[in-house]
Every structure is written in C-alpha cells, then in structure tokens.
Amino acid sequence: MSNTPKNRTNVDIYGTPYTIIGKEPSSHVRLVASIVDEKMREIHVKNPSLDLNKLAVLTAVNIVNDYINLEDRVKELEEELKRREKD
C-alpha cells in the first residue's frame, strides 16, 4: 500500500455532486471537473435530446479526441525543436 496521502475533493459535474479521491491537489481536480462540466454543457446545447449516458460518452470521446490532438501537436513541436537544434 502506498503511504502517499490522498485528497478528497467535492465537485459538481453537470448538476451531480461527486467526491473524487486522489493524489492530485484539489485545485487540479476542480479544474478537471470544471472542464468536463463545461464540455458536457456545450454538447448538451448542440444535442439537447441526448440522455445522460450518451452525453457522458460523447463528452469522453470529445475530450479524448482533444487530448490526442494535443499529444500529436506536442510531438510535432518536439520534432521541430530537434530539427532546429541540429541546424
């Protein structure tokens, strides 16, 4: 078992309260929760007929897509930096 202390953070995502337990600071957890909440509300405006489960899955797909795009961009920038360092 890990002796790392865990933080308990209460957040609200799309009108539902959650207690999230983890190693990250509460400020980080609140930021993550606010981004998820914001994305769910954004998708709901565009697709108001989605039930909660479909909304949650579509939100996860959108967020993972954003993450992958950012990872790809970081790789591109790292490669560009390496090329410039060689010059």
Automatic annotation (TrEMBL):
Keywords of the record, alphabetical order, are:
Cell cycle, Cell division, Coiled coil, Cytoplasm, Septation
Gene Ontology BP terms: division septum assembly; FtsZ-dependent cytokinesis; septin ring assembly
- What subcellular locations does the record give? Cytoplasm
Regions annotated as coiled coil: 60-87
GO cellular-component term (any): cell septum
* Record's function text: Activator of cell division through the inhibition of FtsZ GTPase activity, therefore promoting FtsZ assembly into bundles of protofilaments necessary for the formation of the division Z ring. It is recruited early at mid-cell but it is not essential for cell division.
**Could you give the subunit structure recorded for this chain?**
Homodimer. Interacts with FtsZ.
Question: In its UniProt entry, what is this protein called?
Answer: Cell division protein ZapA
In its UniProt entry, the species of origin is given as Niallia alba
